[in-house]
Amino acid sequence: MKKFCEYHSTKPAYWNCPKCGSYFCPDCIVTRRKGGVLKNENIHLCPKCNVETSWVGVANIIEPFWTRLPKFFTYPLSLQPLALITILSIVGLILSKLSIIGFLLKIVLWGILFKYSFSALKATAHGDLTPPGITSETISEDFMQVFKQIAIYIIIGFVFASLVPSAGIIVAVLFLIFALFYVPAIIILLVTTNSLFHAVNPVVFTRLAFRIGRGYFLMYFFLILLGSAPAVLGQYIMKFLPTELFQLFFGFAKNYYTIISYHLMGYVILQYHEEIGYQVDYEDFKESAVKEIEEDESTNILNRVNIMIKDGKLDDAISFIKDTTKTRPITDITLSERYLNLLLMKKRKPEMLKHCITHLDLLAHKNTKSKACELYAKCLAMNREFIPTSFALFKIGGWLNETGKIKEAIRTYNRLTKAFPDDALVPKAYYRCAQIFHDRLMDPSRAKKILSALIKKYPEHEIIPQAKNYLNHLGI
Ligand SMILES: [Zn+2]
Ligand SMILES: [Zn+2]
Are 264 and 72 in contact (CB under 8 A)? Predict the structure, then answer.
């Protein structure tokens, strides 16, 4: 039965905790890098127990093959396989003009296509649902695999030929039907065991087909459709195309459908890997639809916090954030906001005010104007002595001025200059105040006073030339 995430009832589970038995999706799991030699590998920890979880297996994640048929047809639609199919069809057409040598060379082309299809099958069975690239490995190396497949047909043909005289044509034909039905099972065994001897053992391949069950019949049905599709298509369009173009098209369609058939067999291995006894590791599983899992620290903390919140353990969530961010302050705005809301919900005022310093600084850096101004006002209402960072004060002062809250803006700049007298932003805050007094409050004499004091007190600051200029402009 398909397993779903404990916290997301519609998301298939990827991991299972051996301690608490819970299932988790990638959004809920905690991902960490392994140390030492294995530092490029990830471990996946239970967000509740912090113990290593085991992968549920690919069968739980992927959809059954009969619901994703359109995707099988688009599988070869990628530059490299398309180029291979096209080249093989064109060269095949040219070779068919040559007599016996052409025929022999066509067998080589046929072998290349089968080698590539076989590589596609293997990649798919490993969990990689993208077509393999064209490399020596995928089209020429280890050509034995192709010979082993040919051997399957030779063996079937040989048994058939020897049955005709000894047991009669009816028995021989029945054998042929029986054998052809099991060819996909034999090919699957060839991939998973790499042993021809093992693959052609009737006990082994019939058992495999039965273990897959109904899915095997369905796959066989689709394989027959795929196998006969080029011929059906060919008959239909033969009338409209000149002979050569038709041959080219027919060759192309045959190659295209061969790759799809092998991909389908690979997918069946993937889907039934548990029944077949084939190991598929999480690290090898690759599907474009599945997003890469980030192993960023704040995401991990956030995942665990979300779970604690869903379980109603708000105090635990608060202590957890506090502990994990003790040495490294929070830099993730989502995590920071979650922490703030938790403290608000639990009415933990002193901790909340303390965290607001961090949160306001993050909001100021992100230029989240209204949120920052609102929160600042809220903090002041709770405690008149509340002081955020100098940067946040400077930004908020500017935003208050923009929104017409002039007096509050001046008050904010004043708090900055008083609380952080040595801060590099102080001269700028004075300059801004002077501007407000002149432009907004129509009080040029106050503006002049501030500017003169500023020039006297911070003669080296970068804003001084600007301040002098402004003072001259005021006309004294
Ligand atoms: Zn657990
Ligand atoms: Zn989840």
Answer: yes
- Closest ligand to Cα 47: 1
- What pLDDT does 439 receive? 84
Q: Which residues pair with 256 in a beta bridge?
A: none
Amino acid at position 10, single letter: T
Ligand nearest to the CA of 11: 2
pLDDT the model gives residue 342: 93
Residues (pLDDT < 70) of the chain are 1, 34-41, 281, 283-296, 475-476
Question: Rounded to an integer, what distance in angstroms lies between the CA atom of residue 393 and that of residue 432?
Answer: 13
For residue 254, give both structure tokens. Answer: 């045959």
Return the ligand number nearest the Cα of 27: 2
Bridge-based pairing of strands 42-45 and 54-55 is unpaired
Enter the pTM of the model: 0.60
Find the 45 Cα to ligand 1 centroid distance in Å: 8
- Give the DSSP per-residue string, 259-328: HHHHHHHHHHHHHTHHHHT----GGG-B-TTSPPPP--HHHHHHHHHHHHHHTT-HHHHHHHHHHHTSSS
Class of domain 349-474: mainly alpha
Q: What pLDDT, on the 0 to 100 scale, is given for residue 240?
A: 77
Residues 292-348: tens digit of each pLDDT: 444 567 777 888 888 888 888 899 999 998 888 887 788 888 889 999 999 999 999
Give me the helix-helix angle, 144-167 and 100-126, nearest 10°: 110
d(CA 396, CA 38): 47
Which tokens go with 181? 């039905």
Q: What pLDDT is stored for residue 157 in this prediction? A: 92
C-alpha dihedral, 190 to 196 to 201 to 206, nearest 10°: 20
Nearest-angstrom CA–CA distance, 311 and 237: 63
Per-domain boundaries in the chain: 15-56, 67-284, 349-474
464 CA to middle of ligand 1, Å? 61
Ligand lying nearest the CA atom of residue 8 = 2
